[in-house]
Design brief:
Protein name: DUF2164 domain-containing protein
Organism: Clostridium pasteurianum DSM 525 = ATCC 6013
Pfam families: DUF2164 (PF09932)
Number of strands: 0
Helix content: over 70%
Structural class: mainly alpha
């Protein structure tokens, strides 16, 4: 498996369809534009390929920070 394949975000078909529908609804409600499945799918692909890694990395960092804070709390219950 290539390294870039390993790092690629994968969606189930069901989740992908939900996201495509959400993009189509956004364009309709916010921009009063109807776009098709193909256009919405291309937008989704762009978000996944170009932007999602930043959101993922932020989630990893937030989890790391949260866990470190909990470990500091754990050390506070030591008995001397």
């Amino acid at each position: 498996m290539r390294n870039e394949d390993k790092n690629k975000i994968k969606l189930t078909n069901e989740k992908r369809e939900e996201m495509i529908s959400a993009i189509k609804n956004y364009f309709l409600n916010e921009r009063e534009e109807e776009i098709g499945d193909l256009a919405a799918g291309l937008i989704l692909n762009f978000v996944i390929e170009e932007l999602a890694q930043e959101f993922y990395n932020q989630g990893v960092f937030d989890s790391y920070k949260y866990m470190n804070d909990r470990i500091e709390d754990l050390l506070s219950i030591q008995k001397y």
